[in-house]
């Protein structure tokens, strides 16, 4: 299996490249990238004249982050490769540091599928007129918190503070801006009563330790790291903001989804079917394997892909906040888009066609028929 790492100076092959692309242009950048890249993505039906065949190679992108654990397990345990091997397809992986870079790669045809946050996926779909990608499954849900320095006990205490998010217009960035606005705290791209600084997660930890920022809205394991390694306290657990009306259960909200290129899916549907079977197998393993084995596998992958493993307490706390399941939780997407629009980070758009669960349904049927069972 070949791996490409997208670093600050471009993509590179080989295990020696550990530096990941830490930045990201966020949702506004995605709108530009998506609009510029749509000419590289055929219109729906453009691939209809080409006979559907298995792909020679599936190029899969994901992040070196715990919320992309199904990708870790699918590659490390050979689950993707096993499903793809039946049709002679090889797997090539690409490691990204942020959603915009992964979306740009999808639009440019550099990768065929990617694990992404829901907000970048929504932005890419909207900015490309529905041609940029399709969400075919969920991967992770939950696991995001606003953590702050000691002494900040309510929203009013945030006036005059500086908070961080992983990237402008990303899933946590929009969540923070929405929460602040709902509590009467002005914030916009030029500042406001609360300053929001999009910052790479590792840098956020160091800035918080030094006192340069007062808190951050972060996905796992970074919220757990600030709590356990830097003395932060939890002001908001995002799970408390979802009552289940959109997603079917209180506390449930999408964190990571699996998306594919529509053109690739049209040309190679059997390859996407195989990817989804591997994805379900990875989810099933995460949820049923011995806890110690899961922890060891995930930490080994984090050490290899991100350059450092997590402390046992951090990993345990982070996993307790996350749910790994294939439901894309599509009912949440209109709310996520509406929040981004209200924060002046997106334009209104239709989301019909963003989610395509047909591959997931076939994969579930195939796994059930094979006696291995589907992930819950």
UniProtKB/TrEMBL annotation:
Superkingdom, taxonomy of origin: Bacteria
Coiled coil: none
InterPro entries: NrtA/CpmA_ABC-bd_dom, TAT_signal
Methyltransferase keyword on record: no
Keyword Aminoacyl-tRNA synthetase belongs to the record: no
Keywords: Cell inner membrane, Cell membrane, Membrane, Signal, Transport
Subcellular location: Cell inner membrane; Periplasm
Family indicated by similarity: Belongs to the bacterial solute-binding protein SsuA/TauA family.
Name the UniProt record assigns to this protein: NitT/TauT family transport system substrate-binding protein
Organism: Paeniglutamicibacter kerguelensis
């Amino acid at each position: 299996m070949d791996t490409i790492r997208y670093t600050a100076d471009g993509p590179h092959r080989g295990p020696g490249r550990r530096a990941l692309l830490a930045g990201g242009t966020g949702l506004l950048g995605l709108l530009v990238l998506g609009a510029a890249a749509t000419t590289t993505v055929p219109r729906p039906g453009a691939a209809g004249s080409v006979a559907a065949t298995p792909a020679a190679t599936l190029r899969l992108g994901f992040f070196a982050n715990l919320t992309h654990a199904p990708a870790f397990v699918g590659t490390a345990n050979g689950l993707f490769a096993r499903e793809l091997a039946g049709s002679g397809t090889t797997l090539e992986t690409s490691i990204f540091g942020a959603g915009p870079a992964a979306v740009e790669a999808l639009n440019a045809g550099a990768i065929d599928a990617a694990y992404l946050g829901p907000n970048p996926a929504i932005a890419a779909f909207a900015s490309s007129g529905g041609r940029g990608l399709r969400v075919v499954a969920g991967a992770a849900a939950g696991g995001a918190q606003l953590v702050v320095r000691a002494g900040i006990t309510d929203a009013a205490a945030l006036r005059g503070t500086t908070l961080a998010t992983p990237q402008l217009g990303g899933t946590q960035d929009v969540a923070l801006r929405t929460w602040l606005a709902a509590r009467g705290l002005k914030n916009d791209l030029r500042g406001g009563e609360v300053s929001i600084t999009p910052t790479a997660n590792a840098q956020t930890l160091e800035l918080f330790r030094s006192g340069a920022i007062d808190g951050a809205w972060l996905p796992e394991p970074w919220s757990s790291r600030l709590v356990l390694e830097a003395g932060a306290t939890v002001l908001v657990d995002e799970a408390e903001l979802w009552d289940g009306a959109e997603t079917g259960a209180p506390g449930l909200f999408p964190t990571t989804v699996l998306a594919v290129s529509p053109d690739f899916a049209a040309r190679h549907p059997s390859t996407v079917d195989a990817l989804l079977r591997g994805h379900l197998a990875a989810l099933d393993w995460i949820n049923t394997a011995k806890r110690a084995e899961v922890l060891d596998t995930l930490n080994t992958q984090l050490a290899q892909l991100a350059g450092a493993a997590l402390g046992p307490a951090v990993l345990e706390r982070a996993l307790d906040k996350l749910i790994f399941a294939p439901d894309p939780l599509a009912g949440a997407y209109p709310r996520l888009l509406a929040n981004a629009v209200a924060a002046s980070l997106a334009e209104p758009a239709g989301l019909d066609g963003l989610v395509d669960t047909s591959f997931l349904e076939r994969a579930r049927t195939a796994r059930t028929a094979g006696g291995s069972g589907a992930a819950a």
